[in-house]
What we know:
Elements: H1 2-6, H2 10-21, H3 28-44, H4 47-63, H5 67-83, H6 87-104, H7 107-123, H8 127-144, H9 147-166, H10 171-194, H11 198-212, H12 218-234, H13 238-254, H14 258-272, H15 278-294, H16 298-344, H17 355-370, E1 375-382, H18 385-392, H19 394-411, E2 417-422, E3 425-431, H20 435-451, E4 465-471, H21 478-494, E5 500-501
Parallel strand pairs: 4-5
Antiparallel strand pairs: 1-3, 1-4, 2-3
Helix pairs in contact: 2-3, 3-4, 3-5, 4-5, 4-16, 5-6, 5-7, 6-7, 7-8, 7-9, 8-9, 9-10, 9-11, 10-11, 11-12, 12-13, 13-14, 13-15, 14-15, 15-16, 18-19, 19-20
Amino acid sequence: xxxxxxxxxxxxxxxxxxxxxxxxxxxxxxxxxxxxxxxxxxxxxxxxxxxxxxxxxxxxxxxxxxxxxxxxxxxxxxxxxxxxxxxxxxxxxxxxxxxxxxxxxxxxxxxxxxxxxxxxxxxxxxxxxxxxxxxxxxxxxxxxxxxxxxxxxxxxxxxxxxxxxxxxxxxxxxxxxxxxxxxxxxxxxxxxxxxxxxxxxxxxxxxxxxxxxxxxxxxxxxxxxxxxxxxxxxxxxxxxxxxxxxxxxxxxxxxxxxxxxxxxxxxxxxxxxxxxxxxxxxxxxxxxxxxxxxxxxxxxxxxxxxxxxxxxxxxxxxxxxxxxxxxxxxxxxxxxxxxxxxxxxxxxxxxxxxxxxxxxxxxxxxxxxxxxxxxxxxxxxxxxxxxxxxxxxxxxxxxxxxxxxxxxxxxxxxxxxxxxxxxxxxxxxxxxxxxxxxxxxxxxxxxxxxxxxxxxxxxxxxxxxxxxxxxxxxxxxxxxxxxxxxxxxxxxxxxxxxxxxxxx
Length: 504
């Protein structure tokens, strides 16, 4: 699917992904299919669909504990946000991915994430941070990635160097920096040619030629660019061919060869109109207008300026649309990630919090416990629950679990938390409650479960529960409190079941 997308057949890739997803259960394989679908949508420019598929993939990876795959999902979503121009949100997502790569000690994924962070930082003008990240990415990729990926990472690093050089105000400093880059661009181009990466080699030689001009070697830049034009044409790289003509226009203009410059700007416009970048089109019209004016053709200069103004208005409109797209994506991301976060902390059967939700609740309250706030846990396990499933079926077992969940919620208050702790174990976390209060509530809950009309679910069905109770005053930390409640729960079970234990 990715190969199809990269070869310009993203529609086929999306169709293949949708077909493959039918019947594929939730899990890592489905997540990988969703990532491939997200990539195809991104190539098609369907950013909202790309983000939706990417977030769904991350949700599956999160649920199944596939943290390495989650890194890939976050990186994919960052690429979608970058395509929309929302670099700030993309950076936030990449920082999450980087944190995960460090935890997993995964140097290859660290290199890939650092490369993206470096590219975004460079685009945002944070040159030093960009170069630092990309230098680390090249170092890690050299040790852990295949040579092709290493060369692509080197390309990103050199592009960041060129962006920084282009932004230098001091001409002497710019010339010196450009001169220093030339050897690196030539080395990368030669390495790509040796490996058969023709397109990447031509892009690198193109950047080498472009850097020759600020290095003060304009005549050499002209010769290099002229040599590249037929090679770009031969390899179907028409936007690059257009950019080469635009650079030739600038070079001839700086050499005082205005007539030649005009011809190259005209050729650049003919090529860039077909599929180049909007900013490159504007720059070429600016160059053409300057040349026409210098050559005394005022009417042609005005015509070029008129085209330029229309393009600038279109760019303004495009920026407005891009802002709306970014907002839509942020809203969609917030909706999806809120749903993801809710599902990640919620038991799907009962709707109660799960263990992760309990951990978050306890972490939030424990600082107040350390300052003297009361907190207690009521941990319960359904007695002989396996027999319920064996005798009455799993559908009945699920109905029992849902009913117990509702009873548990009914015994809690707004500040308390009802939890499906795992399997047939439940927990009620009680805010601002001491051991005696928790013990009293646990006895009421035990009796309520025993007295519930279970025969309405299945004939001859009876359910009881064993409960362990502990409060925060008996433990130094969260782990100790949970262990103590668990210990007392098992004391209740081994003591005959259908009882509460709050000491020992």
